[in-house]
Amino acid sequence: MISRQLPTFRTPRLTVRPRTVGDLEACMAMDRDPEVTRFLPGPWADPVAHRAFVEERMRHEYPVGMGYWSIVASEGFVGWVLLTPLDLHGPEIEIGWRLVRAAWGRGHATEAARPVLEHALNTLGLEQVIADIDPANTASVRVAQKLGFWPAGTVPYNGRRVIRYVAGPAAAADASNQSSSAAVTASGS
User: Which site from 32, 42, 74, 175 is most exposed, i.e. has the minimal number of CB atoms within 10 Å?
Assistant: First the structure.
C-alpha cells in the first residue's frame, strides 16, 4: 500500500520534498517573476487571487502518491515539481516543473523531475504521464526530452495549441505502433 504522505527524494544536489505551507511565500515570489510564468496563465499579478490560488493548490486532496514537491538546493527553495491529474481533474496525469530564474540552466528541473517521474511509473504503476508544453518554451521541451518524453501531437490550452509530451509504458507502445505504421506506409506506398 502506498502512503498518503508523499516521499522525499534526494539527488546529488537537491532534496525534492513534499511542498508545505512554509513554502507559500517562496512559491508566490517565484510566480511574480513574469519570465517564470510567461507560458502559464494565472493570477500572478493579483496578490489576493494569487495567494488564494496557491493556497488552494496546497490544500487540495490529490490522489495517493500525487501532489507537489518543493525543490531545495544548497541555497534554499528553487522551485517545485508536480504530479497531478491534468488541471486537477484528469483523467490524464501530468508532470510539471517551475523554477526560480536563478536556478535556470543548471539541470535542476531534470534532476528534480526524474525521481518524481520514476515514482509515477514504478511506484504508482501509471501507464502514461503527460507534460503539455508551449513549443516556445524550449527549456521545458529540453527537460521533457531528457526525461524520455516524446511529442504525441498538439492539444488546446488556454486559447492556443501546446505540444503534449508523453512518457511511460502505454506511451512507448503508442509510439512503437505509430512508427511501425509509418514504416509500413512509407515502404508500402
Answer: 74
Residue from 149, 157, 132, 71 nearest 106 by CA: 71
Whole-number Å distance between alpha carbons of 167 and 148: 6
Q: What is the CATH number of domain 9-188?
A: 3.40.630.30
C-alpha span between 159 and 23 (Å, rounded):
31
This prediction's pTM: 0.89
Q: What is the pLDDT of residues 104-127, one digit of tens each?
A: 999 999 999 999 999 999 999 999
| DSSP codes of every residue in 122-138 | IIS--S-EEEEE-TT-H
Rounded to 5, what percent of the chain is helix, strand, coil? 40, 25, 35
Domain boundaries, the chain: 9-188
